[in-house]
Amino acid sequence: MQHEGNLEEFQDPVNYDLEEIPGSEDRIAMIRAAVTAQGSTTLELACGTGVVTLPLAAAGQHATGVDLSRPMLEHARTKAAAMGLDGCTSWHHADARQVRLPGHVASAVLTGNAFQAFLTDADQQALMATVHAHLEPGGLFVFETRNPSGHPLRDITVWEPWFEYRSTEGHRVHVGGTQRWDAATRVLHWTTERRWTDAGTGQPHRRTARIACRFTAPDELAGLLAAAGFAIERQFGDWDGSPLSADSPEIITFCRRAA
Ligand SMILES: C[S@@+](CC[C@H](N)C(=O)[O-])C[C@H]1O[C@@H](n2cnc3c(N)ncnc32)[C@H](O)[C@@H]1O
């Protein structure tokens, strides 16, 4: 897996927040409730700009964030300082497959479908070993991944619109893209194209970014977790708490490190 080559989407943290924070309320609330009930220390792997890490810190957690994108991590650090959360947050530029920090935490989080950035069995196993190494026995691990049966896993070759947002520069940005499905590796290769028109000059702009995401079915996930020493406690199909079903958009898993 070429991690540095899979980070094109994570070079513009300010606009990332504009795209991602709206609609994250249920996700943050569900994770925060579980994490705060578990203890007072948490590790978020692939934390990005701290969309979830910072609300956890604001709720009283000693929160550690790890990410491979320097711009995302620096933005998280800047926001933490602005929120007065310097003292209860720490940020580490590292690969979640290899990072080893001192001590143990009560809970670990991997969200924003970041699990899908781990593109091979070996990557997923290395990720799970990292979670296991940092969690205290009985500790909680919360993560989600898009449900393969709830998504169109096929080639889409003509740009299709997904959503819009207002950029920091004030442009209405139309976000859409194409996708290529590799059934052998179960990896979806998205090419996102953001389109906007400069209001002053009328000049059209386009910016593309590629990302590869692996899709893992519930039974494969169960096997991975059991082999890595985790017991699944509960699963949901969406952040509104709806049950996991064949057409659920997400597989949200709450599991525990075996004691
Ligand atoms: C979709 S973002 C999710 C960010 C954050 N968890 C959220 O909910 O907004 C995925 C993040 O995974 C990070 N990432 C990808 N591969 C990684 C790796 N091997 N180790 C650490 N971070 C990684 C990217 O830099 C990016 O910030």
SSE diagram, text form:
Elements: H1 13-20, H2 25-38, E1 41-45, H3 53-58, E2 62-67, H4 70-82, E3 89-93, E4 105-110, H5 121-134, E5 135-146, E6 156-166, E7 172-182, E8 187-197, E9 204-214, H6 218-227, E10 230-236, E11 250-257
The chain binds S-adenosylmethionine (SAM).
Low-confidence stretches: none
Strand order of the largest sheet: 3-2-1-4-5-11-10
- The top-level CATH class of the largest domain is Alpha Beta
Output the structural class.
Answer: alpha/beta
Compute the average pLDDT.
Answer: 96
Taking all Cα atoms into account, the compactness measure Rg is: 18 Å
Describe the model.
With 259 residues, this protein is an alpha/beta fold. It has helices spanning 13-20, 25-38, 53-58, 70-82, 121-134, 218-227; strands spanning 41-45, 62-67, 89-93, 105-110, 135-146, 156-166, 172-182, 187-197, 204-214, 230-236, 250-257. The strands form 2 sheets. A 7-stranded mixed beta sheet has the order 3-2-1-4-5-11-10, sandwiched between helices. Strands 6-7-8-9 form a 4-stranded antiparallel beta sheet, with no helix packed on it. The chain is globular. The relative contact order is 0.15. The structure holds S-adenosylmethionine. Residues 3, 7, 10, 20, 46-48, 51-52, 66-69, 72, 95-97, 111-114, 117 line the site of S-adenosylmethionine.
